[in-house]
Amino acid sequence: MKILITGASGLIGTALRTSFEKKGYEMLLASRSEPKDDGHIRWNMDTGFAEEDLPRLEGLDAVIHLAGEGISSLRWTEEKKKAIRDSRVFGTRTMIEAFARLEKKPKVFVSGSAVGFYGDRGDDEMTETSSAGDTFLSTVCKEWEAESRRAEDMGIRTVLLRTGIVLSKDGGALATMLTPFKLGVGGVVGNGKQWMSWVSLDDVVQIVNFALENEGLRGAVNITSPNPVTNEEFTKTLGSVLYRPTFLSLPEFAVNFVFGEMGVALLLDSTRVIPKRLLDAGFDFKFTELKPAIEHAVK
Question: Where are the alpha helices (H) located in 76-171, listed in sequence order?
Answer without folding.
Answer: 78-100, 136-148, 150-153
